[in-house]
Amino acid sequence: MGGFLPWLMDPKRRGAMLVTPAIVLLFVMNIFPLMWSFGLSFFHYKASSVKPPRFAGLYYYEKVLSDPVVWERFQTTATIVSLSVLTQMVIGFGLALLFAKKFPLRREILMLVLTPMMLSFVAVGVFFKLFYEPTFGVVSYLYRSISGEAMALLATKWGAIAGIVIADAWMWSPFVMLLVLAGLVSVPDYLYEAAEVDRATPWERFKAVTFPYIKGLLLLALLFRTIETFKLFDLVYIITAGGPGASTESIAVYVYRMAFQFFKTSQSSALSYILLFVVIVLTNLYLYFVNRREREA
Amino acid sequence: MEIDMSRAIRTSGGLAIGAVFAAMVSASSAPALAKDIVIQMAAPDWGPTRFMQEYADKTYKSPTGNNVKLAIDFIPWGSFYERVAASMASGEKKYQLVVSDSQWIGTFIEGGHFMKLNKYIDADPELQAILKDVHPALTEAYATYPYKSKNIYGFPQMPDTKVTFYRKDLFCDAGEQAAFKAKYNKTLPCTYADWESVDWNTWGNIGEFFRRKPGDKLGSGTATEDFYGTAYQAGKGYDFSSCQALAFVFQAGGKIWDESNQPKAQAIGVVNSDEAVAGFSKYVDLLKYSPPIAKTGQMDIFAINDLFMQGKLAAIVNWNAVSATAIDPKVSKVHDKTAVALTPGTRNGKGEVERWDIMGGQPFVLTTWNSEEVIKESLNVVKWWLSKDVQLNFAKSGGNSALQSVMNMPEYDGIKPWNKAHKNLLKWQKDFWHIPEFFELLTQQQEQFDKAITGQISAKEALDNIAAFQQELLTEAGRIE
Fold first, then answer.
1. What is residue B227's three-state secondary structure?
2. Contact yes or no for B446/B239 (Cβ under 8 A)
3. Greatest CA span in chain B, whole angstroms?
């Protein structure tokens, strides 16, 4: 018996049927808005206005790239990314080495250590803003118990950057730890036993046995965290609002202001695509290193 | 907006059913052809708008006989602008009324979203009477675009001014008064009348005087933790430092770029005039008596209110709508020790205290996409809100009336501790930019003010940078010749 339903349920079409909803959703929620905003970056357009868009060519790309404020925000972002990712890698790596060993309550403590990355950015931002509050915050309280004076961590550029880096590292070091730990536990015991027979020092054991197993995962953690920190918005916006002055204003916060406060829709779209380009370059760099490693192996 | 014609359709049913229905209708007050109309209003989620919703639910009846319901969409303050802007930009046409900060109206008027009301006011003596009764400073700040023009776009929903909240247990303490007199040869203000002569120099003295360490005597007791003198807003977020710093600028004789005199008005030489620099320098200087959060540039209106309610400050200058919580026993440790007075000012050449300040509060405006019937019903809501009875009840719930006739009632001053100060300060209020470039001007100004507050640059450098930025931006926008 024929009909639409049997035709649709034909095993030949089943694969296409299964992926169609996901593709439609992806197109509607991701691809179409991306293409739309990409198109807007070539037009004079403000979302706050009912005036129709007018063609502008590459005007906004030129404007964004020649804007000194954009470059300042990129520098600030690069500083935060470098310090935060480095801190996360060091702490995450250290935690992974710690949890690779067996000790009482290991699983329970591991769960606790993983908790920060399960919290929302807004909650973490508010926690740390209150921690750093100089009149009643816990950081100032501890500092006051030693020095007798309140501590205004967020009063200076580097203090404010440190405040953001600490919050971001607190939240995301466990993610690095999780990846590295996966690599550490995958190292076969017989390799360590062989190294011990060869009387390898701990450093040699790490260099020759452990590191090759975790190198790829470390690179993956580095890439993920670099890309994510590059887009850092919530913590900066909540903890410092970009201050003092504009010394912690990341490029993501600047894009937000441009798009939703100044309503420079075209300009913010152009800047967003430049950011996307930077992220794509970073991703490709990672893929290049991974592929090269595979070729060498 | 929802218009339901079902009642009308039902009334055209069969005779018997009609008779029964007519009997039912006659038992109620609703006319047979009354429509159900919902007026959606976007509003920040706080006391003044919550009161409006509750009071409307209880008392509002449209004079047209339609069943009109005011439905307020309560939006948290933190995301209010973005939510309203997103609604406007999306074209969803959801709201008939919008509570708007006065600075946003240019953006939404030029975007085609807010409606000019002159033709409706001209045709309606009731609206004309309301407009005449509304304090002129409020109409000028909340409703006119271009600023100070004859075009009217809104009516006051919640007028606000900054006032001084102070600890009467400390300021009226005999020991503290004697010590203050001995140290500064000035009277420590205790009553409302005492505060009338307080200028910023005395405010500085108060700030210095009330800084105490744990163990120091404080009023009739002893300080158990660090206690700070005075605070006013100095936060980088939104318009926090601008709203206070510009008061100092105005009082010192300085000005901001005059949007009502486009394109002749200039920014350079005005924004960074010697008077403006002197005023802003005074503002920055007095922050040294504030709690250490001032050094971070995050001492916003909520931070100072929290610290005051925790009993860590002797006096604050803040919006009365925000600091109304200071007298609430549920949240304030100092609820029974708090009094309210005028804000300090700057003494002019004649020895008088000038209190020029930035207007707070918000108007509510009509949107452009509604039918004549809905516009009429929205204006009826406006008229209801700005009726004397509603405004008086609003004041009793903690709000500020916009009507001079209500503020002049003998009982008004005593309704809430801030009523008298609010009423007397309205004449000193000005507003800053309403043009669509407002947010860019504000963000850059806030950034520069914050640099000066946190000691990265001097007050003069900050104002020079602001003037240069404004000159360039406004010239590019065609607003400066």
1. strand
2. yes
3. 91
Q: Quote the distance between the C-alpha of residue B39 and its chain's center.
A: 23
List CB contacts (< 8 A) between B450 and chain A. 243-245
| Interface with chain B: mutation pick from A141, A153, A263, A269, highest number of B CBs within 10 Å | A263
Contact between chains at A133 and B81 (C-beta distance less than 8 A): no
From chain A, the residues in CB contact with B297 under 8 A are 154-155, 243-245
Strands B36-44 and B97-99: parallel
Question: Do A147 and A237 meet the contact criterion of CB atoms below 8 Å apart?
Answer: no
pLDDT at residue B281 is higher than 90: yes
Per residue in A188-206, is it b (16+ CB within 10 Å) or e — as a string? eeeeeeebeeeebeeeebe
Residue matched to tokens 């005051």: B308
B127: its two tokens: 């609206």
C-alpha count within 13 angstroms, C-beta hemisphere, residue B96? 24
Please say whether the structural domain A69-118+167-296 has been given the CATH code 1.10.10.2840.
Answer: no
Contacts (Cβ under 8 Å, ≥6 apart) of B164: B195, B198, B315, B316, B317, B340, B341, B342, B343, B344, B421
Q: Is the peptide bond before B48 cis (omega within 30 degrees of 0)?
A: no
Residue whose structure tokens are 């690095």: A176
pLDDT in tens, B150-190: 999 999 999 999 999 999 999 999 999 999 999 999 999 99
pLDDT, tens digit, 9 for 90 and up, residues B19-38: 444 444 444 444 557 899 99
CATH number given to B162-358+435-476: 3.40.190.10
Query: What does B409-469 look like in DSSP terms, one character per residue?
Result: STTHHHHSTTHHHHHHHGGGEE----STTHHHHHHHHHHHHHHHHTTSS-HHHHHHHHHHH
Q: Where are the beta strands (DSSP E) in B279-356?
A: 298-299, 313-319, 338-341, 346-347, 353-354
Q: Where are the alpha helices (DSSP H) in chain A?
A: 4-9, 11-26, 32-40, 59-65, 68-100, 106-114, 121-132, 138-147, 157-185, 189-197, 202-205, 211-230, 234-239, 251-256, 265-296
Q: Look up residue A179 and give its two tokens.
A: 């990846």
Identify the pLDDT of residue A297. 61
Token couple for B91: 């074209």
Select the CATH number that applies to the domain covering B3-160+361-430 from these four: 2.60.40.640, 3.20.20.190, 3.40.190.10, 3.40.50.2300.
3.40.190.10
Residues of chain B with CATH 3.40.190.10: 3-160+361-430, 162-358+435-476
What pTM, to 2 d.p., does this model score?
Answer: 0.89
Chain A CB contacts of B82 under 8 Å are: 260
pLDDT tens per residue across span B236-265: 998 999 999 999 999 999 999 999 999 999
CB A73: neighbour CB atoms within 10 A?
22
Q: Tell me the mean pLDDT in the region A222-242.
A: 94
What pairing do the DSSP bridges indicate for beta strands B357-358 and B429-430? parallel
CA-CA-CA-CA torsion sign (B54, B58, B64, B68): positive
CA-based nearest distance B167→chain A, Å: 19
- For B117, residues 6+ apart whose C-beta sits below 8 A from its C-beta are B127, B152, B153, B154, B366, B379
Give SS3 for B53.
helix
> How many whole angstroms separate alpha carbon B275 and alpha carbon B257?
14
In Å, how far from its chain's centre is CA B459?
26
Is residue A259 within 8 Å of A46, Cβ to Cβ? no
Interface check A201 vs B, CB under 8 A: no
Q: Does A261 touch chain B (CB under 8 A)?
A: yes
What ipTM score was computed for the predicted complex, to two decimals? 0.85
